[in-house]
Amino acid sequence: MHTFLPYAWFKGECVPFEDAKVSIATHSLHYGTAAFGGMRAIPDPFDKDTFLLFRADRHARRLSQSARLLLAELDEETILQALTAFLVKNHPKKPIYLRPFVYTSDLGIAPRLHDIETDFLIYGLELGDYLSPDGVSCRFSSWTRQEDRSLPLRGKISGAYITSSLAKTEAVLSGFDEALLMNSRGKVSEASGMNLFLVRDGELITPSVDQDILEGITRASVIELAKSMDIPIHERSVDKSELFIAQEVFLTGTAAKITPIRQIESTKLPTNRPIMDVLRKKLISITEGREKSYSHWITKINLNP
Length: 305
What we know:
- There is one protein chain.
- The protein has 305 residues and is α+β, with helices and mostly antiparallel strands.
- The protein folds into two domains: 7-126, 2-Layer Sandwich (D-amino Acid Aminotransferase, Chain A, domain 1), CATH 3.30.470.10; 136-272, D-amino Acid Aminotransferase, subunit A, domain 2 (D-amino Acid Aminotransferase, Chain A, domain 2, Alpha-Beta Barrel).
- The protein is 26% helix and 32% strand.
- It has helices at 27-31, 56-69, 76-90, 161-173, 217-228, 240-245, 274-287; strands at 7-10, 13-16, 34-36, 39-44, 47-54, 96-104, 118-126, 136-144, 178-182, 188-191, 195-200, 203-207, 233-236, 248-253, 257-264, 267-268, 298-302.
- The strands form two sheets. Strands 8, 9, 10, 11, 12, 13, 14, 15 and 16 form a nine-stranded mixed β-sheet that branches. Strands 1, 2, 3, 4, 5, 6, 7 and 17 form an eight-stranded antiparallel β-sheet that branches.
- Helix 2 (56-69) packs across helix 3.
């Protein structure tokens, strides 16, 4: 069971969560014509009245760009102002996950994006570890990641997540924790809702943006950290067989943070993960506001303005 925050941002204001309701005829419910973001926020370890948002500006930018792919206008400042009001109203005490969501709110039946109303909402819930920090088991999905020519993969379009849902359930029902998706060219793309990294011979490798991946914000952060720590990093296509012989394989995402893969199919992977460990330790320190050189990655929200 999820513990949702008591208030949601709905129709331009904070309302009780149970009152934030949409009609069963809502256009986006039927056609997946929506886009969402995912953000983590935690209490400031040094100030109980402050919450820390990781890379809020990047999240707002991606959601704004996702809205544009739906022919909707939602500027970054509007998103950030709503997030601030939402946090102040809820005054959370524990780490939370935020879900901002832009959607076609008309009650029509024609699949379209023109001449249609859109709206924006936010809700949140308490969230600890989405995946086990000790590692997950994965299988390759029988489902294929969509192509950008059939769906705008530069945005977090809600309709695209039917493939993720099918892949995740297939993996769990067959005894695994998570699914790995190949693209239509037979290369490794990503997991059901996370980006993927592997380490070979001391070098960090991740599928490049032309492999039909979501341009993950945690992924981009890990790449930037690796460069700053002089860890060789390559963004390129990845073959399936590379994962079985890699020294380290891990997933990244807002919910997953940095999560190791301990097993792929029947192959158990090494448990010594020095590169992942140093990156994860650094990222945790940054998200907790302990790294002054990365203070620009953290947005501080005073809950008692």
